[in-house]
Automatic annotation (TrEMBL):
Identification of the protein by name: Helix-turn-helix domain-containing protein
Residues covered by the HTH iclR-type domain: 6-67
Keyword terms, alphabetized: DNA-binding, Transcription, Transcription regulation
InterPro entries in the cross-refs: ArsR-like_HTH, GAF-like_dom_sf, HTH_MetabolicPath_Reg, Tscrpt_reg_IclR_C, Tscrpt_reg_IclR_N, WH-like_DNA-bd_sf, WH_DNA-bd_sf
Keyword Nucleotide-binding: no
SMART domains: HTH_ICLR (SM00346)
C-alpha cells in the first residue's frame, strides 16, 4: 500500500475477488484468515458491501457476490466493444466477412460488437445483441474449447472442427454460413471470442490464422 491508496477500499475489493473465486461463498472466519485481518474488520467490510448490493449473506452466514455486480457488469460491454473495434474492422475488411466479438453471458454467447465489410457484394447479416447457446456456433465453441484446454476433457466440443487455436463450424446458426472463431486468452474477467461468419462451403485456410491474430489484438487492447 502507498500513501495514495486506500487500505479499506483495497480490502473491500479483495473481499469481492475472493467471493468471485468461490461457488459456495465464504464465512467471516474464512475471509478473516484469507485477508489477514480480524473478524470485526471483515464484518464492517461486508456490511458496507451489502448496503450497495455487492455482497449478500445466506441464512448460514456465508457471504457471496451480490446481484449489484450485474449493474456494474453491464457497463463493461461498451468499453470492451470500443477496445475491440479497430481489430474487428481490420479483420472484416481483410477477410471480406462479418467480424464479431462475442462474450459469455450466463449459458449463452452474446455478440457485443459486429463489423461488416464495406467492399463485398454480399455478406452475412449479424447484429450486436444476437444470442445463441455456447454449444452452437464457432464463437461459443471456441470459448468452450478454451475452457477445456484449461481443464482437459476427453472429447472435443460438439461437432466443431478445431484448428491450432481456432474453431470452425458450418451451418449451425444459419444455413449455408460458415463460422471461424478464436478465444480471447489472458484477459482477466473477460471470457469471449473473436470470429467471422461467411457464406461459403469451406472456410479458407488463412481465415483461421487471421482470426487468431485478431483475437490476440483484442486481448492486448483489453489488458
Amino acid at each position: 500500500m502507498t500513501a495514495e491508496t486506500s487500505q479499506t477500499l483495497d480490502r473491500g475489493l479483495r473481499v469481492l475477488k475472493l467471493l468471485a473465486d468461490t461457488d459456495h461463498g465464504l464465512t467471516v472466519t474464512e475471509l478473516s484468515h484469507k485477508l489477514g485481518v480480524n473478524r470485526t474488520v471483515v464484518y464492517r467490510l461486508l456490511a458496507t458491501l451489502e448496503q450497495h448490493a455487492l455482497v449478500r449473506r445466506d441464512l448460514g452466514g456465508r457471504a457471496r457476490v451480490g446481484l449489484g455486480v450485474l449493474g456494474l457488469g453491464r457497463q463493461v460491454h461498451p468499453l470492451v466493444r470500443e477496445a475491440a473495434m479497430p481489430a474487428l474492422r481490420s479483420l472484416a475488411e481483410d477477410i471480406g466477412a462479418t467480424a464479431h466479438l462475442t462474450l459469455v453471458d450466463g449459458a449463452e454467447a452474446l455478440a457485443v460488437a459486429v463489423v461488416e465489410p464495406t467492399w463485398t457484394d454480399y455478406h452475412v447479416a449479424y447484429r450486436a445483441g444476437f444470442r445463441h447457446p455456447l454449444e452452437r456456433g464457432a464463437a461459443g465453441k471456441a470459448i468452450l474449447s478454451a475452457r477445456q484446454q484449461a481443464q482437459p476433457q476427453p472429447h472435443p466440443v460438439g461437432d466443431a472442427v478445431e484448428g491450432p487455436g481456432y474453431t470452425l463450424t458450418h451451418g449451425e446458426l444459419e444455413a449455408g454460413a460458415c463460422g471461424a472463431a478464436a478465444p480471447l486468452l489472458g484477459v482477466t474477467g473477460v471470457e469471449g471470442s473473436v470470429g467471422v461468419v461467411m457464406l461459403a462451403d469451406v472456410v479458407p485456410e488463412r481465415v483461421g490464422t487471421r482470426v487468431m491474430e485478431a483475437a490476440r489484438e483484442v486481448a492486448e487492447a483489453l489488458r
